[in-house]
Amino acid sequence: MRIRNRALANKVVEAQEAAAMIEPGTNIGMSGFTGAGYPKEVPGALAKRLAAEAAAGQPGKVGLWTGASTAPELDGVLAAADGIDLRMPYQSDPVSREKINSGAMDYTDIHLSHVAQRVWQGFFGDLDVAVVEVSGITEDGRLVPSSSVGNNKTWIERADKVILEVNSWQSEHLEGMHDIYHGTALPPRRTPIPLTHPADRIGSPYLECPPEKVVAVVRTDSPDRNTVFTPPDGVSRAIAGHVLDFLDLEVAAGRLPRSLLPLQSGVGNVANAVLAGLREGPFEGLTAYTEVIQDGMLELIDSGKLLTASATAFSLSPAAVDRFNRDAAAYRDRIVLRPQEISNHPELVRRLGCLAMNGVVEADIHGNINSTHLMGSRMQNGIGGSGDFARNAYVSVFVTPSVAKGGAISAIVPMVSHVDHTEHDVDVIVTEQGLADLRGLSPRRRAQLVIDRCAHPDFRPALRDYHERALRSSFGGHTPHLLAEALSWHQRYLDEGTMRR
Questions:
Q1: Can you tell me the distance from the alpha carbon of 311 to that of 309, in angstroms, rounded to the nearest whole number?
Q2: What DSSP assignment string belongs to 419-456?
Q3: Rounded to two decimals, what is the model's pTM?
Q4: I want to staple 365 with a disulfide (CB 3.0 to 4.6 A). Which of 360, 417, 438, 447 is the partner?
Q5: Active-site residue 299, yes or no?
Q6: Residues with Cβ within 8 Å of residue 160, at least 6 apart in sequence
Q7: pLDDT digit string (tens) for 455-466?
């Protein structure tokens, strides 16, 4: 019995009836983070209604706020119906991406740790409706979160009315895995967050919502839309090998303990390859303080190497989801799911000394990182939480294959076409070619190291030529650049389909 509260059980309706309570022009906060814990029924019903109204000559749109990316059943259907006015803070849906880059949909890219604060400050307007998936409702009306927490606490607190989707597909053993902290406040009432270890629990296992706010409850039994990871290829394994060698050296130098420091890892095949390497490596007693728990972290827990993982959501392959749902009770004391304003909080990332590892679109020779835009103007997904961790981590590592598009694009360029992470927040850059530790180096020295260690051999001579001429002819000698050429590689790709000369 997932709905144990009689008053809320009396509010059970079909998805179409719940969607009818959402007016065009409203702002909606929906649950969901990396395809986990998003509402499965109401978004589709709302999209169908908006599409029908548009066909009848009455087009309408809504503002869509989430934790991060969701899935086609939410982002995709609403975007395809031209039903989204403003999207924030992160997305990865191809239909949404096309709408954003064509100018048909407004999009605000924002650090994930900043979302709750900006919503409380009112910069996005009022939040009219929250649509939140939960895995259960207790006898006294408290809400058991599902496979992600994200911004759900903020949506429930700020929304005028709340629609709940109770998903019986989610494991009932999720109850007790969450830690919902209510102690954050805006200045000048802010106080320190009392968390000093990834395993600390400082809040409640439940979300709380005044029952009078809940206008509808919808039952569902639909699975999360999970990412399918490909097995690590040679490039991913090479990158992982460089990262693991680096960690070994840091331990040997006395800068890291043998148990390392709390791990933060972006999502993807390279990250999973590094986690697989840690499973086979010499490090014991590991912890993680991160955004998402992916396959590699679950396997590290199973191996006994990872003692605790703190995150805001899961991002698991279908096989890993099956394993988790089967054994969720066994994971409950090893995994903590928190609101993303806590999982990504700069105060906590700095205090814990996280080791951050994130992917990039491109890096330049002086250490600046573009993680969001293709050729300077086309949004890919968004910055997500990488900036929350990169700026505040004990060590900030960025990883990427050295080339893309079959070798037509170099991931190491003279100047990035868009800056998400400045050189000041980047400690280490890694490709399959090698690793460049940039700490303590001037821009000119960083450029030499990035070219020699990280650039693909096909592009290395051109990068060396650019840097050597910049050293001779740049307006200034501190960060040498030839401004007329700095973005010419990107323009060449747009004109000719390749960065190669």
A1: 7
A2: -SB-GGG--EEEETTEEEE-TT--HHHHHHHHHHHHS-
A3: 0.96
A4: 447
A5: no
A6: 126, 127, 128, 129, 213
A7: 999 999 999 999
